[in-house]
Amino acid sequence: VELRNELGSATGLALPASLIFDYPNATAVADLLVAELAGTTRLGMDDQAGPVTGAATHDDPIVIVGMACRYPGGVSSPEGLWRVVRDGVDAIGEFPEDRYWDVEGLFDP
After folding, report:
1. Residue 84, helix vs strand vs coil
2. 15 burial type by CB count under 10 A (0-12 exposed, 13-18 middle, 19+ buried)
């Protein structure tokens, strides 16, 4: 959604919230933007641009650039999450004070 918003702001186009699902790679998004900006198509009206379909390939490498998390029980890493899951730890706790939630309004015993 953030990418769609940035592209929309930069181009002045009203892009759909489903942009990345409808155009799932950089080439498809770029082709859409070029066509829209050149005035050769209208969003949602072009038969050429649309969802990319086809057989999934499993030989493409997958890269996870980074992971982070923050869960109850003091879990702040993927390893910590798996430890809690593996050990069956009960991680239920109080609402974190740093989130400024209206605890009294949310909690009704």
Report:
1. helix
2. buried
